[in-house]
Amino acid sequence: MIKYIIKRIVYLIPIMLGVSAIIFALKTFTPGDPARIILGNDAPQEQVDAKREELGLNDPVVVQYFNYIKGIVTKGDFGDSYRTGNPVLSEILPRLKTSGLITLGAVAIGAVIGIILGIVSALKKYTWIDSLVLVVSMFFQSVPEFVVGLVLIFIFAVTYHILPSSGIESAKGYILPMMCIGLSSVASYTRITRSSMLEVLSEDYIRTARAKGQTERNITKRHALRNAMIPVAQSIGTNLGNSIGGAMVLETVFGIPGVGKYITDSITQRNYPSVLGGALIIAIVLTVINLLVDISFILIDPRLKTTIISGGKKKLKKAA
Amino acid sequence: MAKLYTPEMEKIAKKKAKRNKPVKSTPAFEAWKRFRRNKTAIVGLIVVGILILVAIFANFIAPYDYQSQDYLAMMQPPSSAHLFGTDQFGRDIFSRCVYGARYSLFIALFCTIAALLSGGLLGIIAGYCGGVVDTVIMRIMDVFQSIPMIMMAMCIVSVLGNGIPQLVAAVMFASMPTMARNNRAAILRVRGCDYIESSEAIGVGQMKMIFKHMIPNAAGVMIIYFVGFLAVSIMMMSAMSYIGVGLAAPTPEWGLILNDGKAYLTSSPYMMFFPALMIMVTCFAFNLLGDGLRDAFDPKSK
What we know:
The complex is a heterodimer. By secondary structure, chain A is mostly helical. Chain A is built from 13 helices and no strands. Chain A is flat. The two termini of chain A are 22 Å apart. By secondary structure, chain B is mainly α. In chain B, 73% of the residues lie in helices and 0% in strands. Chain B is built from 12 helices and no strands. In chain B, α3 (39-56) packs across α5 (93-129) and α11 (254-261) packs antiparallel against α12. The radius of gyration of chain B is 23 Å and the shape is flat. The relative contact order of chain B is 0.14.
């Protein structure tokens, strides 16, 4: 058990190195001389050269990459914003809270609606309700979130003035973006819940429960649902990445000062360190959260332990 | 009572009588038969077909040029002269939406083909070779996947700049890991089959094995992902263009048309309504089609 967790944590290191290598590679492709951009167009050439030396831009690429990693690990240095000169990390951390809140809210909305719809369509399988649920949830999955967002803004903000169209001055501002991202993930929860419920409902212990005269309601609630929730809960981890991606776009649509807005603004301002640093921070946060989700599910459901660990062993044998 | 003889059965019977030998029922024909029964999928297919025709014949359908500005007809609501109205520069929104179909569909097609050639091929190689090659390729894909798709695409566009080739490259890199994973899974499913083992036993060459035996048999599943990715590319592209990190201004891409109308949502909502409708209809149609294809090619997965 502990061995598995340690293995997973150790496995994070190459992934993180790889991600930082991608970001570093993109960094070397950025147009313009960073020293020149920091000092401005009028700065004399000697100053620029000195700055280049200071930033280590004259070193070989490998040395630069090594210094980059060293800076991140020892000082949390993801680069400085071209615009403000502040470290990217200190600019992003307060925004991470806003983005995190939206993502969590979205995951909660999506999961709750999706699970309820999934149960309904599993219990009413092959009826018109079932097909309706699948088509509607698929509609929200297939339409881009920002388009749903625009429609919701038009209905709730422009026409009826119930909710604000942008900003998060009041807590109401969170509702629409959370709804948009949540609705787009409903379909995947519905599908998983439906298929997992159908599978569980055909198990022997459900038949036993029926045979002993248990009510249908209790069978669904106590026997079927609890067992059917495991794959659903596991899918939350994978959905998290999509929801964060959705939040990136919708923050710009709704004018919310989160990481997504920060990054899109930085792209239009050609503020490359902020873009790439921000992306790297998001990737790290996401990977760590995914790991925590995985580990917590093994702790919750001991049955997974055997499948994951033996599966891992099999893979190791194959590789060897 | 159900009909005993459906038209296709009669057709088959006629063919049989003609050739006087049993008709070979190909997997593709079986899939088409299953697909035809699925009404939502047929709707998706028809809408996608119409969109493709619109994209190809955009210059015959659009009444105006997509970038000609008419300062005498600015911000006009929909009328018979301008079906979808005009924007703040007096450009005909209907024409822009029609040309938008051309841009959106073709760029999405390029993105998906590029993703298939990069990620798809890597996935096929990983699935076929297995062992160390598989581990190395898939671990690299894991790395790519730890950056959220749209973020990856945004980073690449920010570094390379706006433009169609840059956007294609961005979407390609962003969707590469998923494409690799899907194609690898498709190949792995075929790989375990007996006929692969038997062709191995009679000494079929590697290239012939991959292109003659494995890919045709995995093609059904691959087509499903291909169509799914077209929808994903359109979604990603329009979202990026809308927030201003995708294509550059006069291009009639649906996300960009939406972006143009952003400031006038309160006064003239039609400017955003029609391009939004186009995006919604297109993405939904592609997903219906993709779903129908999945049920047709892969009936067991439901």
